[in-house]
Amino acid sequence: MIVATRRQQRLRARSDAGRSGEYSSPACYLHEFETQAATAPGIEIKRIYEPAERSDGYRVLIDRLWPRGISRRRAALDAWLIALAPSAPLRQWFHRNTTCWSEFRRRYRAELRVQAAQLQALRARATRQRVTLLYASRDVRINHALVLRDVLRRAPGSRVRRDS
């Protein structure tokens, strides 16, 4: 936890410097603008097996199981939100029925409705800094992180369009 605290202090110091409107020197203007653009607020997704980067911002693991072969240090997590991961029965059902992607999304969204407080906290954080949702799935086109990112990007009261 000490690592997360130091990281949060560095992020706060960097954001305070950017708010004051002062830059270190004219030669640093471009670099400081690039740093701010690289960590622009929002929600991104990334495989946990990819190396951690400064531009990731707040790194959140959203899997129920710890990923194989990843040490806590290599993961460089700020949080591990197990409650936002699909339930074990849903995860196992989808593993057996990978062709039922639209049904998985519907069931997972239903599970996420119960986690409104955690979803709202992540949305609020994403307005201040980049939030990177980390997942361990091999498939980058069909995984629960895509669904969670879409849910977080929507307004809390908006309705989801039905899949056909």
How do the helices and strands follow one another from N- to C-terminus?
A: HHEEHEHHHEH
- Report strand %: 5-15%
Distance between the termini: 45 Å
Specify Rg, calculated over alpha carbons: 18 Å
Number of helices in the DSSP assignment: 7
Total number of distinct structural domains? 2
Q: Provide the low-confidence segments as ranges.
A: 17-25, 27-37
**Given the helix and strand composition, which structural class is it?**
alpha/beta
Describe what you observe in this structure.
- Strands 1-4-2-3 form a four-stranded parallel β-sheet.
- It starts with a helix and ends in an 11-residue tail after the last helix.
- The chain has helices at 2-19, 29-38, 72-75, 88-96, 101-112, 116-128, 144-153, and strands at residues 42-47, 58-61, 79-80, 130-135.
- It folds into two domains: 1-38; 40-153, no CATH class.
- It is globular.
- With 164 residues, it is α/β, with parallel strands linked by helices.
- Helix 5 crosses helix 7 (144-153).
Which short descriptors sum up this protein?
164 residues, alpha/beta, 4-stranded parallel sheet, 7 helices, 46% helix, 11% strand
